[in-house]
Design a protein that fits this description.
Elements lengths: L2 E5 L2 E3 L5 E8 L7 E7 L6 E6 L5 E3 L7 E6 L4 E6 L8 E9 L2 E4 L3 E5 L2
Parallel strand pairs: 2-11
Antiparallel strand pairs: 1-3, 3-8, 4-5, 4-9, 5-6, 7-8, 9-10, 9-11
């Protein structure tokens, strides 16, 4: 069973930065499409960013220019660098792997932006 473990969430002030990490196991990471999604209270889960096997990326309009997704295939880890954080970025952030025609999810990590 594929396992995804997120880390790096926390409480930061508006304008601050965080870097999320997602470590994958039991997966041929280099051929998995990876992504970050988030879910705020009372809202549906939404796409934040994805990175494909070739390195191409896709971002939600709301985070373009502030967030950067990257991957390290040797470490089987995907990252989300989040800068210029806003209160509306507050959510549980989930790592996703699209692998072998299935979608896998991590347990999520809480990100709270508040002064």
């Amino acid at each position: 069973q594929v396992q995804l473990v997120e880390s790096g969430g926390g409480l930061v002030q508006p304008g601050g930065s965080l870097r999320l990490s997602c470590a994958a196991s039991r997966i041929i990471f280099s051929i998995a499409g990876m992504g970050w999604y988030r879910q705020a209270p009372g809202k549906q889960r939404e796409l934040v960013a994805t990175i494909h096997t070739g390195g191409s990326t896709n971002y939600a309009e709301s985070v373009k220019g502030r967030f950067t997704i990257s991957r390290d295939n040797a470490k089987r880890t995907v990252y989300l660098q989040m800068n210029e954080l806003k209160p509306e970025d507050t959510a549980v952030y989930y790592c996703n792997a699209a692998y072998n025609n299935k979608n896998y999810w991590g347990q999520g990590t809480q990100v709270t932006i508040s002064s």
